[in-house]
Structure formats: C-alpha cells, structure tokens
Amino acid sequence: MLSFVWSEDNKHQIGYKGHLPWHLPADLAHFKEKTMGKTMVMGKKTFLSLPFVLPKRKHLVLTHDEALIQKYKTNNQVNFVTSMEQLRKYLLSHKEDEVAVIGGVSVFEGLKDIVDCLEKTEIDGEFKADTIMPKIDYSAFKLIKKESFTADKKNPYDYSFLTYLRK
To answer: Is the model's pTM score more than 0.85?
Structure first.
C-alpha cells in the first residue's frame, strides 16, 4: 500500500527552508508510528532535512546527485532512483509492501494519482513557509479516521490526525 504521510498548516503549507515550520512532538511521534518498518520514499531535499538515517526504515531517495548516491552506497538502509519513471516501476513491483511517501512536493505531485492512503496531520495555525502541499482530489478518498487534540505543554498548537483511503 502506498501512503502519503505529511503535516500541514491551515494554508496547506508543509515546509520552510527545508524543514518543518513548527515543532509538534505529537506529530513527530505520529510520523514515526506511520513510517516505522516501512520503505519511506522522498526527494533529495527531504532526505537531507532528516537529522540522520532513520532507524528501522528503508529510505528510497529520488535524486540525480551522484555524490550523494556514492556517499550512501554502503548503507543498506538507503537506496536511490534517478527518475520518477524508475520510482513508479519500483512501486509497481512492490505493491504488497507498505510504502510511505514523505516528501517533497515533486514526489507527492508525481505519485498523487496512485496513492492509496493519506495520513495527514492538520495543524491549526499559519506559519512562515515556502512550500505548499500539492492539491489532492479528496473526492477520490474516504475519511476513515480523525483524531483531534488541543494544545498542551508539549504541543503548542491544536492538531488533528486524519486517515483517508482511496474509494
């Protein structure tokens, strides 16, 4: 199953200068839960925004950066594809696997026609950002779960976790 896993604010913004525009520990825990044990698909900028290679997850990175590919060639947690066509072929041959697309915009855009599940965190706020989530046709999906939470000492914003499945 192919899932998108992301968080966005009220204006559908998802990033600022290569990082999340907010700090929300509950969302980081949710992200960990939704990606643990899966293959995570991402672009180069998203990969470089991670603090390190995340444990117990495969990282499949879309990039042409040969230096980056060489740097990680001995790391069995990190693999690379160099085109959207190659990525789509990989996904077609791994349909039974749990795969989580985590960004960036071009990867979400390139796979939105074949995604099966949307795991979205809505953060109640508007932040300084330079990256917006591509438009998704939600009429093609059914909301199957929504959990809402109010701000607390650890999480300074109201937020909701939503799960959608393709109809």
So the answer is: yes
